[in-house]
Design goal:
This protein is an alpha+beta fold and 176 residues long. It has helices at 11-14, 73-84, 127-136, 144-158, 163-174, and strands spanning 4-8, 22-39, 50-68, 90-99, 106-114, 138-139, 142-143. Helix 3 packs across helix 5.
Amino acid sequence: MSDFWVFGYGSLMWRPGFDHVERVPARLRGLHRSLCVYSHVHRGTPDRPGLVLGLDRGGACLGVAFRVAPQAREEVVAYLRAREQVTMVYREVTRQIELLDGSRRAAPALCYVVDRAHQQYAGALPVQRQVELVRQGHGMSGPNVDYVRATLDHMDEIGVVDQRLAVLGRALTESV
């Protein structure tokens, strides 16, 4: 069996929730990190949605790739489907990633890409609307604000800068 990689760009970076044998900075081209998904379960409810990240088309995304032992593949995929596919707002796809560990390796990785046709796709919202949704969101995984702050904190720790998310982070801090 060949290597199995999972690409994380949001909470998977800081809380993968599955065993892995390698964790490597990685780049995914053709998609970017975007706070573009109304959260109805993990960080909000249908009546008071939160806002979570999705991979949306265009640009590139710096994140983290996790190599999973071949014998754990089925278990990890089942876990990720239960976690990421609760409302089917993401499409499960395999995309080529670039591993940024100095090896110049490229690898296929499992990625969760937002389905733009899904009712929970929010698209590009103004920062003030994002702030409102993040402030109100609270779901089974906790407050939406905690999700955004933990993602920003982890990105800072690993040296990843995402200007759009940083603007939201500053706006959340200023509106306290």
